[in-house]
């Protein structure tokens, strides 16, 4: 009898952790990819220039992913993030041209992004239009608005060196912003009422509202938060490449952000989410992107290989879970 | 009991499948890696140059999938094969400056031996190119150059004199049309490989003093959307007198629209830049008045040659600005482009030496 009750303790604990924590799984995938790229091309990781370069691939996708994760937990999505990305820096530029100091202009840009988020949220929550449709509409609207106010031509952000360096001009500035925002968002999601209520209302909207949680207010707030983050990212990127371009961002970066969230372990259908997983998911995408460019893959075959690599990483991720859950890994 | 046995079998099956998959992918990766290692270990030899490392030149581009650059890529392939070099064709598919800057930075981190990039934004490439030069990597601009007076430190520009080409197109427009609405189509306004042409054309038309009402329309970076935009503009302005474009895709769109609505018979004139195959056909059929050749093949070929010379001479010689040309191609001179299907115009993948006889017309 005592024999039958003796479970194999040591392997079960390790595989249990692997099965329970999606962050550890995707971190393992990221590590494997790093090792692969480092062995194939020795300039991938261990020099200052390449680390900085890699961080610049990761940072914008990660920050937008944080916002998308908050929405995806509730089963919503923000497709207009890529267009708000291009819109906010132009509002900042016009505010500065109108005479405001740079930091106030930046605030104006972020607030403008927040207004788009407010529209997204209000239409989704109060008019009860599915968020996919709402944000699809705002996607095109904001894109057209950006092209109109900019007349399609790119402009230069202010060259004020201290402010510009802080807001993305310095090489490591973007990744520092990313890590700070990751910490902030993680605490928000896991340790504040806002985050916990978001998860509760995402997992069980009916039960949550019966328990007194203001589901609609939460969703509205999360739409605004997602748009604020997208706008901030656009401003950071504008300072990094010293050019504010109406064609910047677009649907590509929005897809990458959603992909980073999903790869990190936030299901598309909602119910749970992980900010740290989103950060690591963005890191996986950045590692793949940067690594293949460094190896020398040409533009035509690039997307083929990137797509195959993402599939490979996700298949590994999900099947390791299955095996770990069975307790046999 | 039976349940756990089934589970065990399923797990065994999955584990086997996973191991197999891992084994196959590891084998493939190893093969790929070995292949890469083998090709890079080969020394390059050629002609009167002593053996040297296979230098790698990274071509960053703003529209990597645009058919205009197909002859450019052939030029790069031919030159690198000739000189014993390797190349990488990368960048952004839809003119995203952020992606291009990332690609330049990745090339620097990968310790490329040379970098070539069209400078399609007045400021964004200053820092990355300076970083490349600081790291000892020569950088050449091709197809698009920084505006005059810019502090961009690229070593040389290989491409068309853009403002002048636009100016000459504007002069030709003023010759063809006396008054009325003229539409000027541009794929992505503000971009430095096409905006100067537009500026030049507008300046020349203004200088002519004729009562021509010029409207500028942005058509987008891909050929499909360009055609749709041009068609809808025409349908909304059927009294226009001329449709002209400053980039390859829009020129093809103008030519196709002029054929579909049979515009030359209504006295409408059209023209543009570059020699996409459809454009050349429609010039021959008489639907487009002219196009302007900027010789994309040599934009790739000469850039590689300059990089090679720079690297072979240790930086003593090599960079030199090259104007790859401004040649008007009309119905009278389009024959050679039509009758040959060569790598040099991007219409064929076959390597060939094209025979030519007779006098050379100017």
UniProtKB/TrEMBL annotation, chain B:
SUPFAM superfamilies to which the protein is assigned, alphabetical: Periplasmic binding protein-like I (SSF53822)
Keyword tags: Sugar transport, Transport
GO CC terms, sorted: outer membrane-bounded periplasmic space
Record localization: Periplasm
Family (UniProt): Belongs to the bacterial solute-binding protein 2 family.
The protein, known as: ABC-type sugar transport system periplasmic component-like protein
One example GO MF annotation: carbohydrate binding
Domain Periplasmic binding protein residues, every copy: 57-310
PROSITE patterns documented for this protein: TAT
Record carries keyword rRNA-binding: no
UniProt key word Transport: yes
Species per Swiss-Prot/TrEMBL record: Paraburkholderia phytofirmans (strain DSM 17436 / LMG 22146 / PsJN)
Pfam families: Peripla_BP_4
PANTHER family: ABC TRANSPORTER PERIPLASMIC-BINDING PROTEIN YPHF, D-XYLOSE-BINDING PERIPLASMIC PROTEIN
Main location: periplasm
Domain of life per record: Bacteria
